Amino acid sequence: MKDEKSPAGRSYHHGDLSSALMDAAEEELKQHGIEGFSLRGVTKRAGVSHAAPAHHFGDANGLLTALAARGFERLIQTQRDFRRRAPSNPRKQIEASGVGYVVFASENPALFRLMFGSDRPDFGSVHLQRIAESAFDELVSLVSAVTNDRGSPKRDGAMMIDVAAAWATAHGLADLLAAGRLNTLGTLPANIRNRRIATIMSRAIP
Amino acid sequence: MKDEKSPAGRSYHHGDLSSALMDAAEEELKQHGIEGFSLRGVTKRAGVSHAAPAHHFGDANGLLTALAARGFERLIQTQRDFRRRAPSNPRKQIEASGVGYVVFASENPALFRLMFGSDRPDFGSVHLQRIAESAFDELVSLVSAVTNDRGSPKRDGAMMIDVAAAWATAHGLADLLAAGRLNTLGTLPANIRNRRIATIMSRAIP
DNA sequence: GGTATTATCTTGACACTGCAAAGTTACACG
DNA sequence: CGTGTAACTTTGCAGTGTCAAGATAATACC
To answer: Under CATH, what is the fold of the domain B59-204?
Structure first.
C-alpha cells in the first residue's frame, strides 16, 4: 500500500519515481537546456539519490529518450488541436498543423531541441522510433490529401517534394524561433504571428 | 625565430597554437559532435597541455565561439560561390543562396549545429555577432532585390515575411538533412538533390 | 651581449559529472 | 514468519572544465 504522497515521510520506495523523474528532468531541461543538463541535478530535484534513475532508465540518455518520446506525443497532440479548430479544407489543415508545430517549439524550446537537435536520445529505441514515425506519417497523409485533391495521387517523387517543403518550412520557422533568431516574427502578438506563419506555410505547397 | 614546423622537436612555444587549436577543435567536433566535445580531447589532439587554450580563448565556450564565427565566414563564402554560378536573376540568386546554405549544413553538420543549435558560443561576442549579422544582411538584400523588382520597395511587414519564409525554408531543409531526417531527399545524388532544393526554395517567395 | 619583462605553456588541485558495484530497505508471496 | 525480489542508497572511480601557481622561451631594453 503505497501512500501516494505522504506529506512529510518519504518512504524508501517512492511509488512513482519513474514519472517523477521525467517531470524533474523536463524542468532541468527547461532551466539549463540540453547542454547544461545534469542527471545529478535531476535527482536532487526529485529528492532521491543520484543513482536512482538507473533502475528505471538505464543511463542518462535513457531518461532523455523517454523525455523525447513524451515530447513527440505532445507535439502530435498540439498539431491535432490546431487542426481541429481549422477548416477541414486540406490546405488549411496543413497550415494549422504547421502552426501547431511552431507553437509547440516556441513553448518548449529546450524539449524541441532535444527532439530534433540532439544525439542523446536513442532513436533506435522502438518506442521513440514509432512515435516519431507516426508524427511523420500524419504529415504525409495531410500532404497526400492535398495532392489527391488535385487529382494526382502519386506517392512518389512529386509528393515527397511537397512533404519535404511543408516539413522544412515548419521546422525552419520552429527552430529559428526557438533559438531566438527571427525576432521580427517572434516578438509579434500570438494571433498575428500565427497568421503570418500560416501564410508562409501556405506557400510551401503550391 | 620560430621554426614553423620542426618535424620532430616541438618548441615550448607552439608558434601558432591559436589556429592549431581551432583546427583540432573542429576535428573533435566532427568526430564527437557538440555534445561529446571535450576540451581535453582537443588539447590531446594538438599535443599540448590541457590548460593551454586558456590563454588564447579563455574557456571552452570561448574556443567554440571562435569556431562558430569561422563557421559563419565559411557559410557566407559557400553561399556566394553558389550565387556566382547562378543566373543574376534575383530569384535565381535567392535559390542559389539557399542551396549553398543547405550544402554547407550537409557538409558540416556538427559545425552547423554549433552555429544554430547550441547555447555554448557567446553570441554577445562582437566578432561573432557581426559576422552572423552580415550573413543575415546578405539575405535581406537578396530578398529586397526581388521585392524591388516587383515594384514594391517597402522594407517593413511584407518583406520581412519574405525574409522569414526564405530563411526558414533553407534552414529547415538544412537542419533536417544535417540531422539525418528527410532521407528521401538526403540520399539523392547531389545534382538532383540541389535542383529539388532550389524548387522548394522558389516556393518561399511567390 | 646581458638582463628584465612579458607572453606562452605546463603542472597540480579542485569540484563536478556519469556510471558501476555493492549494500540496504521495503514489499510480495509462500 | 521467512525468503526472494524490486527499488533505492552508498561508495568508489575515471573523466571533465576551470583556476592558481610554476616553468620556460621569446622579446624588449640597456
So the answer is: Tetracycline Repressor; domain 2 (1.10.357)
